[in-house]
Amino acid sequence: xxxxxxxxxxxxxxxxxxxxxxxxxxxxxxxxxxxxxxxxxxxxxxxxxxxxxxxxxxxxxxxxxxxxxxxxxxxxxxxxxxxxxxxxxxxxxxxxxxxxxxxxxxxxxxxxxxxxxxxxxxxxxxxxxxxxxxxxxxxxxxxxxxxxxxxxxxxxxxxxxxxxxxxxxxxxxxxxxxxxxxxxxxxxxxxxxxxxxxxxxxxxxxxxxxxxxxxxxxxxxxxxxxxxxxxxxxxxxxxxxxxxxxxxxxxxxxxxxxxxxxxxxxxxxxxxxxxxxxxxxxxxxxxxxxxxxxxxxxxxxxxxxxxxxxxxxxxxxxxxxxxxxxxxxxxxxxxxxxxxxxxxxxxxxxxxxxxxxxxxxxxxxxxxxxxxxxxxxxxxxxxxxxxxxxxxxxxxxxxxxxxxxxxxxxxxxxxxxxxxxxxxxxxxxxxxxxxxxxxxxxxxxxxxxxxxx
Length: 453
Description:
Order of helices and strands: EEEHEHEHEHEEEEHHHHHHHHHHHHHHHH
Low-confidence stretches: none
Protein name: Glycerol-1-phosphate dehydrogenase [NAD(P)+]
Organism: Hydrogenispora ethanolica
GO biological process, one term: phospholipid biosynthetic process
Structural class: alpha/beta
Distance between the termini: 38 Å
Number of domains: 2
Keywords: Cytoplasm, Lipid biosynthesis, Lipid metabolism, Metal-binding, NAD, NADP, Oxidoreductase, Phospholipid biosynthesis, Phospholipid metabolism
Strand content: 5-15%
Helix content: 40-55%
CATH topology of the largest domain: Rossmann fold
Number of helices: 20
Strand order of the largest sheet: 3-10-7-6-4-5
GO molecular function, one term: metal ion binding
């Protein structure tokens, strides 16, 4: 399904109609997305079109309030809106945790009819969750092209150090002013680029699971996601220069990818092992009381390592595998759980074990998966032909100035190795790392990637 990007005269993005005959339920989102220069100046008119009411709670952090929040607040007040401000002040990094959620909730009262999130990832995710839980609509004012989550229905939050994904709402109005967004720090733009590139691995892992586990699969969503990736790579020079056209192209790619989350109601088309690795690094950094890398930058770096793992995976001589020996060498449930607690810590480990029913497989199921892969390996390889080589992707990264190695985002070799071996355990999402583990070759693949061979 080829998607053409079109706009109405008032800069509203005309979303494509999803025509698909797969077995997955599809939803038709009701959302107004405006992209263009000077969008902020018309924010009041755009918001009034939806008739949310006149009493708003505006959520921002000090930076996003300075670049856009103050202006939005004043424009709404000038047009007769009653605006209450929740500015999330922090001595260090703002996290989407229970403290921030509580702060927003304490600013709510019965008069508040809708919420306005001014920011990017953290502010938007906090707002979408509160809006969903309290039954209120919300407006999103984007301040950076740093993520695909502006139109998501999932909020990645942190609860007692554990990264959790909670059902949430999407904004009914999304305002993307290119003049504001193109002035965001370039690191945030690179984070958005990394988030888009990660879709390569998300799609590849989904293909694996469709064939091996008969997981529900939407080919139209896959087409949309791969078009988003291609759009970003084709615009790499304009993105690097942070021109309006480049930022608009990246935003369109992020929204196109995020649209698939709205359509099927979960993040399967856009997030897999590369996101698991990014979440693992974030949780471990927080345990160490260190500042984690930005989510998008971590996803981009993790995508490179996952792509290398795919390449090493296909260099394996699968005909030499001894299935009986693999099954005899299976670790026990207690061994698996002990290792998870050791690598995630005594607080997070039990939660990982509780939430991932596929953490330990019975022998019969592991054997079925191995045999299914061995029968279908040629078809799988053919269907993953869209993946670029690591050399091709690394060249794109270097060209645009994106981080390539884990060390560039503050991830040491211990955290890198642990992510390669244990990020697969973070949640139930089948990936090439999961398959390699079931085939008994994951430690060898991880060692090869670590050695750069």
